[in-house]
Amino acid sequence: MACDEKPPEELAAELVISGKTLRAWLRKRFPRGESERGTNWYLTHAQVAIARTRFDPTLGRVQARSGPASRAPRTELSRGDRGHEAGAAVAEDASKSVEEIVRALQGRPASVDQAQLPHEREGLPRKPGLYAWWATPGSIGGFPPNPHPDPEVGLVLFYVGIAPNGPGSSATIRSRVIGNHLTGNTGSSTFRFTLASLLLEELGLHPVRSATKVVLPTKENRLLSRWQGEHLRLTWCVTRHPWLREDEVIALMEPPLNLAANANHLYYSTVKDARAVFRRAANRLGPEAA
Fold it and tell me: Which candidate, 150, 131, 89, 103, places its Cα nearest to that of 255?
């Protein structure tokens, strides 16, 4: 696949669409600054990949359990691996390309309850990979829209994570999501910490310090879990060495709650400031038992 410094006209020809159609979409998705107007436009690798995912019919999204199979190449699954395509990817024994991962993460999201079912019943797998959190629109005020590519899904993207985060960890998608994001506290999950920070006032949270970490009291931590169950959905993609793909996937999907490898996102400063306020609130309360 061609990478950086590709002019829109060249990409449009490859995608067999009009240059006018592609440019209109690009201007909306990737607005150019005043200083760039009137100059030649060359697309970055990330922009090219996103456009391909949007316009190339051979790069269709992974479908829901009841929907048609993806047209992307796939390997045969073992009996135990069949039937969990809502949120999950196929070809589990191979490392996937960035485009394959993005397509899988843009599949039909599973509910929090569904994700916690055993893997054999279409729940989260005990495998390495990436996952994406999606949310109901308006669940957090002032949120910039990053909608799911399927309008019928009606969700917006929140966050992309990986498990494990390196070769020295034995974490899996299942252990990370359930053990940290859903049942842990804010000190063991960056995603949970960020959610609590953004919902500090709405949920009436009172963070406290436990040793060196900022956490929520037990009842409030359960309140956050209930909020997650009501507003969040989840997709995932099994792949080896997910840490090698994380930055590129974040660049393509633009999840607003990620800070790492996402400093250019419009929501970056909002998330960063909210997390600072959350920490300061714990400082004001002083040490308490969680």
Answer: 131
| Calpha distance 1→15 (Å, rounded) | 12
Q: Report d(CA 247, CA 105) in Å as an integer.
A: 14
Cα(99)–Cα(53) distance, integer angstroms: 7
**Number of CB atoms found within 10 A of residue 16's CB:** 9
End-to-end CA distance of the chain: 51
Structure tokens belonging to residue 213: 């970490």
Q: Tokens 């699954």 — which residue?
A: 77
Q: What is the pLDDT of residues 169-212, one digit of tens each?
A: 999 999 999 999 999 999 999 999 999 999 999 999 999 997 78
pTM (two decimals)? 0.69
Indicate the domain borders of the chain: 1-59, 64-285
- 278: nearest Cα among 213, 228, 226, 218: 213
∠ CA 95-100-103, rounded to 5°: 145
Q: Let me know: does 208 contact 290? Beta carbons within 8 Å.
A: yes
Contacts of 16-22 with C-beta under 8 Å, sequence gap 24+, read 17/55, 22/51, 22/55
Closest-CA residue to 280 (of 186, 206, 192): 206
Question: From CA 10, how far away is CA 67, in angstroms rounded?
Answer: 33
3-state SS assignment for residue 23: helix
Q: Is 232 helix (H, G, I), strand (E, B) or coil?
A: strand
Is 96 within 8 Å of 129 (Cβ atoms)?
no
Best CA proximity match to 216, nearest among 258, 274, 278: 278
Read off the tokens for 36: 């760039």
Per residue in 247-276, pLDDT (tens digit) is 999 999 999 999 988 888 889 999 999 999
Determine contact, residues 152/82, Cβ cutoff 8 Å.
Answer: no
Alpha helices by DSSP H, listed for 2-131, are 8-15, 19-29, 45-55, 98-105, 112-115
